[in-house]
From TrEMBL:
Transmembrane segments: 39-60, 76-95, 134-156, 162-180, 214-234, 254-274, 286-304, 310-332, 353-369, 375-396
Name the record gives this protein: MFS transporter
Entry annotated with the keyword Transcription regulation: no
Membrane-protein topology: Multi-pass membrane protein
Amino acid sequence: MRKVLGSNWVLALLFLGWSLGNLDRYVMNYAVLTITEDLSLSATSTGILLSSFFAGYAIMQMPGGWLADKFGSRKVLILSVVLWSIFTAMTGAAWSLGSILIIRFLFGMGEGGFQPAASKLIAGVFPQEKRARAMSIILTSGGLMAFITPIFSAYVLDSIGWRHMFVYIGFVGIIIAVLYGKFIYNPQQAAGAEAVGNPAKAPKSGFGQLFKTPMMWSLLIAYFCIYAVNWGLASWMPTYLSDVRGLSMKSLGLLQMIPSVASFAGLFAGGYLLDKMTGGKERYAGAFSCAVIGAMLYLMFNASSVEGFIIYQSVTSIFLAFVLILLPAIVLKKIPAASTGSAMGMVNTGGQLAGFIAPMAIGFMVDAFKGSYEAAFWMLIGFTLVCTVALLSLNLNKGGDPEEKLTLAETNG
């Protein structure tokens, strides 16, 4: 009989898996500097490469969420980690633009089910009033990896190269998959309340009712916009600071640790604050944060010194982190646990489509404007404005609580 771990241990395992996934995503943004040279890529080709992961990732969001709701989180989590680890290792064997695009696309599909399944597991093992904080702890893995990755990349890429690096990261993933197989469980099975994967006993859930909920569409738009900013900055920041600001790889690695710490703090504090917010205050806090992000992006691009740029980037990171935890927190707090996987898959599809489009669009713009990033920064500022409007349009209590509507729909079948 499998030993049932407490919720904090489950959270620790999810944090470990999410950390590895974030490491691979962030490390590609630095590895691409040498990959571009080895494979002779243009800025446009580099943008397509950085976007290829998100194409596969976006495609699997809703299927991954549906599978987690139907069969439980455990199987989806294990399969996701195994698949993404295999394709991470295969990245090191890429020999051309075409091969690495296919590998990164398949890697994205492999990882696609992880976040919806992890979100469902959080909803199953944590009470509603603690879910935002639990999610914020997991998402701080992104801040932690953003902090570690610059200096990690600077030394590992110099010492063993990008090919060996991806192979070793893939091997670590297999170890994590083994841990998941041994210790992760479906909370319904542990409690004996529901037979996950048994249609006769499991509560019904689906996308039909979610698609009819206005809140979900506002969240999807907000997800798309804020992740366009997040991944647009994350994917191109190393290249921008190297090409435009003239930073070396080691200087780049050290300086980027500062906004990474700010992001880490923003994620952790955001989860704590959101568990305390009620009565729709979340949307106003999110809209204000988006407005600040837009202003900081303008100041970043026009900063006269690298020091000023890093200061504005750090402020951006704090408020960006808050919005990134705000959106899944709303899903976890307002959507019933039986539909959490599908709901997270739906809204996160918007976020990952942005991850596909934004890096590629920036690459096109940089080529079109002969190395200038001005148009790209204005595009990101525009996304913050749209995100502000989408968050202000949220009315979590209009026409009744979405959770009550979804629960009623599930009851009626």
